[in-house]
Amino acid sequence: MNIFNVILIEPLANGLILFYKLLGGNMGLAIIGFSFALRFLLNPLTKPYMQSMKKMKEFEPQLAKLKERHKDDKKKLMEAQGEFYKQKGINPGAGCLPYLLQIVILIALFNVFTRVLSPNGDVISKFNELLYAPLKFAGGETLNTKFLYLDVTKPDAFKVAFLPFAIPGPILILAALLQFVSAKMMTPLQKLEEKVAKKTPGAADNLQVSMQKSMSLTFPLFTLIFGLSFPSGLALYWLLFSVFQAYQQYKTSGWGGLTPLVTKIGLLKS
Question: Taking burial as the number of CB atoms within 10 A of a residue's CB, which of 26, 74, 121, 212 is the most buried?
């Protein structure tokens, strides 16, 4: 028995087909409905991170003062920050679990799509191997994988005659862009700390800020590069998940790391 299949792949496959049957037999609509449901189920895990980010923003001035006070002693700065986080109930690593869980789910969904929603082979038979009895397809049934311009079993990519490689399609580009926006919004805006950092080049950056800056580039690049070979249904899921994530982040702590940009273009008053 494959534990990964039992606890992740089979439940995800069954959830997807449940929405497929509830939403009129369209795989694109099923992915949209399934994404909403999955986001709702994961909300309890992401909520602590959002609360932590809200507190981080609230205590920006105090954190900047700590950095200024211990600008010449990296060890004392880290100890002081740790103690401050403990006193205020802030967990700088709270964002790791939701991201790791997203990666695990993405891997499992990739497995479902590549294993079952393949343009080659009997899709119905492959799905039936993973489905619970009430959701199994009857003999002779077909699966509708068309949605907008997509076939969700194939990559969202276009070949251009004069290029030796495929270029990303609209859904894939939007998925990468929204992933970047979402990650940037999760980066705490700390103007005071940035000023202090310029004066103290030897001091360590805040752990969470550094982590989020890295993620803001890593995830979009991952989406674009590997999305060229992923089924487009996976890109559609990732796009929707990023939209939900960005909205939740905005409701919790505003524009975050995008504040300077939205202020510059007039969406937010300085």
Answer: 212
Residue at 268 is within a domain: no
Chain CA centroid to CA 204, Å: 27
Q: Which domain holds residue 68?
A: 3-251
User: What residues contact residue 232 under an 8 Å CB cut-off, 6+ apart?
Assistant: 150, 151, 152, 153, 154, 155, 156, 169, 171, 172
In a domain, 257, yes or no: no
User: What total number of domains does the chain contain?
Assistant: 1
| pLDDT band at residue 266 under the 50/70/90 scheme | low
Q: Could you tell me if residue 267 is inside a domain?
A: no
Residue type, 104: V
In DSSP terms, 151 is beta-bridged to 146
Backbone phi, psi, residue 25, to 5°: 75, 40
Query: Quick one: tokens of 12?
Result: 């995800």
User: How many angstroms separate the first and last alpha carbons of the chain?
Assistant: 58
Q: How confident is the model at residue 195 (pLDDT cuts 50, 70, 90)?
A: very low
Residues 255/57, Cβ–Cβ less than 8 Å:
no
Alpha-helical (H) ranges within 70-201 are 74-88, 96-115, 123-128, 170-186, 191-199
- Among candidate residues 19, 48, 16, the one with its CA nearest the CA of residue 248: 48
For residue 94, being part of any structural domain is answered with yes
Residues found in the chain? 270
